[in-house]
Write a structure and sequence with these properties.
This protein is α/β, with parallel strands linked by helices and 617 residues long. It has 23 helices and 20 strands. α4 runs parallel beside α5 and α22 crosses α23. The longest helix has 22 residues. The radius of gyration is 28 Å and the shape is globular. The structure holds adenosine monophosphate. The site of adenosine monophosphate (AMP) has 13 residues, from α5.
Length: 617
Amino acid sequence: MNAAVTTYDRQRHSDVASENAFASLKLNETLLKAVAETGYETPSPIQKAAIPPLLEGRDVVGQAQTGTGKTAAFALPAIQRLDLNLLHPQILVLTPTRELAIQVAEAMQTYARYVKGFHVLPVYGGQGMDSQLRQLRRGVHSVVGTPGRIQDHIRRGTLNLKSISTVVLDEADEMLRMGFVDDVDAILSTCPEKKQVALFSATMPSAIRKIAQRHLQYPVEIKIKSRSVTVSTVRQRYCQVTRRNKLDALTRILEVEDFEAMLIFVRTKTATVELAEKLEARGFSSAALNGDMAQALRERTVDRLKVGRLDILVATDVAARGLDVERVSHVVNYDIPYDTEGYIHRIGRTARAGRSGEAILFVAPRERRMLRSIEKATGHSIDMMLLPSQEDIADHRVNQFKALITSTIESEDLDTFASVIASYQQTLGADLSDIAAALAFLAQRDRPLSPKLAKIPEQGFKGEETRGPKAPNRTHSSRNNRKPSHDRPGSVKKLQPGMERYRLAVGRDHEVLPKHIVGAIANEAGLDNENIGYIKLYDTYSTVDLPGGMPKDVFQHLRKVRVCGRKLHIELDHGFDENTTRGRARTAEKLKKSRKPKTSKRGGTKKVKNSTQALKG
Ligand code: AMP
C-alpha cells in the first residue's frame, strides 16, 4: 500500500461501506429500496435534519434552496405517512412554477415506485383542465401544483381538500416573489385545521415568516448553515449549462483545459459510473469512485490517479471525502453541491501541497441562487466562464499536434522513417508537403483537427428559463408578465414623481426579461412588485424606475446582485451624456440601432435620430 492510500480518509470509508445512512432515518423498506435504486448514498444535510421530525408528524420550517435535496426531504416522509386505502388527496405540495410542480411530482413518483397504487398528480396553469379533472375524479393521493391553478380547482369544487393531512410549501419565497402569497394563505386556510405543514424557502422574508406563524404549529426550524471560508489558492469559475448539454460542455472543457488530474463531482453512484463510461468512450482516461465499491477497489482507483495511470475520477461527495492527491489540478462540480460546505470541501480536493488549483462549477438556471450563496460563503466572486467554441477547440488541437511534431523530431530516432519517405518521394515524385499532409491526416484520423461538436446554446440559460407564466386568474398587477409593455420600441416613459431612474448592466443581449429584473429587485431590495416602475430594455443595458431615496446598503447590495448570471451594477441613470465614456457607449449603441431597419424591434427610430444629431452637433 503506498502513500496515496495512507493519506486517504479511512474513517469515512468504513462509514460508507458499513451502513445505508437513510435506514437510520426510520424510512420503511419500500422507500429505502427506491432511494437506493435512485443512487443516493447518504442523506443530504436537509434530509438528515428534516426527515425524522416530519415522520413524527411535526411541522418544519426549512431554510434551504434548490439543489439541497429538499424534495426527498419532504416527499419521503409524506409518502410514508400516507393512508394508501384512502384515495383522496392527502398531500398537497404548492410550488411557484409549473416546472417545479412537474419535477416534484416526478420525484415523488420515483420515490414511491414500490408503493403499490400510489398516485400523484401535477396541476398547473397552461395545461388543459380536462385531463386534470379526469385524474382527480379517478382519485389521487397527492396533488402538486401552482397556487393559481389549485385555487381554480378549489373554486370549481373539483379539488376537495378535506382529507389533506400534509401541506408542503416548496420555494415559499419564490411564491411570494411571484405574487402568490395570498393564494397560499387562502389555500392553507381551506385545508383542515389538523394537518402537518412543511415550509421550505431559500430566504425568510417577513411575509413568509408571517405565513409560518399563522399556519405552522411549533415548527422545527432547520437552517443549513454556511461557514465563511476562503479558498484562496483555487481559481473558481462557473459555467452556465443545462442538464441536457452538461456532457458536451464537459467534453469541451476537457479538450482545452490543461489539467493534470481532474476530480468530477456528481450526485449519485449511478452517475459516477455512467459519466466515467461516457468519458472513457470519448477517449478520456476515467474511472468512477463511489461508496458501492469495495474499499480495496476504491483505494486501488485512487492509487491509479495518484501515479498517473488515470486522469479523471468521477466521484460522489462521500466517496471523495478526505481525498488527498497532489496531481488533482482541477475540480469540476458537474452536479452542484447541496450546500456551501459541500462546495468548499470539494474544491479543497485541489490545490494540495502548496499548489494552485482550478474549480469549475456547472450551474443550471434553477441553481443560480446556490451560486450566490457559495460566493458569499467563500468570500470570493466566481467568474463566469465561456465554453470553448468550435474554433477554440480546433486551435487547441492544431497547437497540440504541432507541439507533438516538434517533440517527436527532438526526441525520437527518425532515420528509418526519413529514408522510407525519401524513397517514396523519389519514386513517385510526390511533393514533400503533400506527403506530410497525408501522414498528418492518418495520424489525426481518430481525432480530427477540426472536430464537429454538438451544438450548445451560447448562453447556457437561453430557452431554459424555468419560471412559467403566472396563472391567468391572478388579480393583482402582473406588470412583469406583460410582454414588455415597458419596452415598446422607441417609447421611453417620463419619470413619475417620487421615482428615480436607474441603469442596470444587463440587457437583451444577456437574455434578460423584465420579469427577471422585477424578480431580482423585489427579492433583493425587499420591494413589492407594485413599487417597481417602468423598465426599458436595451441591447447591453436596461433602465428601471424605483422609488426615490434607496438606502445606501440596499443600493450596494443590488450592485452585486446577478440577473441571468451577470451583476446588475446598478447606478443612477443620469440620462444621455456624451462626454462620459458611458454616454459615448450609449451613443454608439444608438448609432448601431440607427443602422437597423425602421421596423427593427430593438431601438426607437425617433431617439436614434436625436442621438445621431447630438453626435453630429
Ligand atoms: P432538490 O434540491 O430536491 O431539487 O434535489 C436536487 C438533486 O439532488 C436532484 O437531482 C435529486 O435527485 C438529488 N438528490 C436529492 N437527494 C439526494 C441524495 N441524498 N443523494 C444524492 N442525490 C440526491
